[in-house]
Design brief:
The protein is of the alpha+beta class and about 450 residues long. It contains 18 helices and 14 strands. The strands form two sheets. Strands 1, 4, 5, 6, 7, 8, 9, 10, 11, 12, 13 and 14 form a twelve-stranded mixed β-sheet that branches. The protein has a two-stranded antiparallel sheet with strand order 2-3. The chain is globular.
Length: about 450
């Protein structure tokens, strides 16, 4: 008897306790016995939990002053899409490009990057699934069902973004602007999913792999182009810098544009993660099976390190190189979206509910309470007088300038420890033992592992 069969047999013979009227009466009595419960109910039903639980003293002490600030100008807006990983990586890139162009205002086309990411991801998915079908993977297996349910979302990773920029370059936003579907991707993604799922159904019915992949790729290309437009393969580039000087380069390709103006070596960055689970030792490389976007591109791998090392790298990049730092976090816990703040004690939910929320970072990851879901860029840090101890962080978000400090958020250092999972840093920042770990085989985690969550 397998473990799963034994568990099912045990569940079938276990007598579960029903929620009886006497138990309900006891719950009501216990609720009414605590006067604070009724006060909390009155406040929350009228104002909502966040306004009721907001820690006034903590909120006013989270200052917006930083010892190092990287000014990246006006924030961007991803609108109703999940493109934060593209916005945040291009926010790092645009800072470099603005310095090279001599301008304060510049934005790359996030729609251009999304177009090629999705087209490449269609091909990656088809090739991956076709190989699994050929190998006999059951259609109802956990893996196949995970891949089918997770396909064609907007999320991604730093490495996946750089795969796109390396292969397809980038263009200024006015040359491939936003469309209705780039700003609200729901229906486009739904239709793309149906196209891909139909292809998988045909593969399981025994359809020819090569023709099925070709026809599906062509259909997905049509969907993307109808929703987003035809991206330029070259363009005439000219601009006026902030000194009033006019510049004309002439015809240039997107790859040439990227290589000329984003010369900070971003392609050589590596991703550091804080996987707190003890079975994944620090100083080892992690990979997620079946996670990627560009066939033949750089694989999505991370180096698992202590969170304090991640902080030190982020601080050094801003202090030494003066450029923003891409990172991924679980943005929802203890977030004041309106005022733009994160701190581990920003909301006193436990006091309102009379419940001790006591899980640590490892437990939250292990039991599905937390995972990376949003990518942003650090653009400032406040450091103590010892020169290394970080106190709080300034964050460039991509939710527009109508919230927070004109779109910029403030993060406490303890929140970084608990809810930041990934930071992209130059490979040169790693000590010898971490450099060697990068060359070693990665620990391969299944496709559904929380470390494979996409921003």
């Amino acid at each position: 008897m397998t473990d799963a069969t034994a568990a099912a047999a045990t569940a079938a013979t276990t007598e579960f306790a029903s929620l009886s009227e006497s138990r309900l009466a006891d719950l009501r009595e216990r609720f009414d016995a605590r006067e604070a419960n009724r006060i909390a109910m009155n406040a929350v039903t009228d104002s909502g939990i966040d306004k009721t639980a907001r820690n006034f003293d903590r909120a006013r002490s989270l200052q917006r002053r930083f010892s190092t600030v990287v000014d990246n100008g006006k924030v961007t807006s991803q609108a109703r899409s999940g493109r934060c990983w593209l916005f945040s990586s291009l926010n790092v890139a645009r800072f470099v490009a603005k310095k090279n162009l001599g301008v304060k205002d510049f934005e790359f086309s996030q729609s251009y990057a999304m177009y090629y990411d999705k087209l490449e991801r269609v091909n990656y998915f088809l090739q991956d699934v076709a190989a699994l079908v050929a190998a006999g993977e059951p259609a109802d297996s956990r893996l196949m069902q995970h891949l089918l349910h997770d396909v064609m979302g907007d999320g991604g990773q730093w490495t996946m973004a750089l795969n796109v920029y390396t292969k397809y370059g980038a263009v200024p936003k006015d040359l491939f602007p936003e469309t209705a579907s780039s700003q609200n991707t729901g229906q486009m993604n739904t239709n793309l999913r149906s196209v891909l799922r139909q292809a998988v159904a045909r593969l399981y019915e025994g359809a020819d792999v090569e023709s099925t992949v070709a026809e599906t790729l062509a259909a997905a290309h049509r969907v993307l182009t109808i929703h987003l437009g035809t991206p330029p393969t070259s363009f005439d580039w000219e601009w006026t810098d902030d000194e009033g000087d006019f510049h004309r380069v002439g015809e240039i390709t997107p790859v040439e544009f990227w290589n000329r103006y984003v010369d900070a070596g971003l392609e050589d960055y590596v991703c550091l993660v804080d996987d707190p689970r003890k079975e994944h030792p620090k100083g080892t490389k992690i990979a997620i099976e079946h996670l990627g976007n560009v066939v033949g591109g750089t694989p999505t791998e991370y180096l698992n390190v202590p969170v304090d090392f991640m902080k030190d790298c982020a601080r050094r990049i801003m202090e030494e190189q003066g450029i923003p730092v891409w990172f991924g976090a679980d943005c929802h816990p203890m977030m004041d979206r309106t005022n733009g703040a994160w701190a581990t004690d920003l909301f006193e939910y436990g006091r309102v509910y009379d419940f001790d929320f006591a899980m640590d970072k490892e437990e939250r990851v292990r039991f599905a309470d937390s995972a990376m879901n949003h990518a942003m860029a650090f653009v400032g840090v406040d450091v103590a007088d010892d020169g290394t101890t970080t106190r709080r962080w300034r964050v460039e978000n991509s939710w527009g300038d109508k919230i927070a400090d004109k779109g910029y958020f403030t993060m406490s250092d303890d929140w970084f420890s608990e809810f930041v999972y990934e930071v992209a840093v130059p490979k040169s920042y790693l000590p010898k033992e971490y450099q060697e770990a990068l060359a070693a085989p990665a620990i391969a985690l299944p496709a559904w592992d929380p470390m494979g969550a996409l921003a």
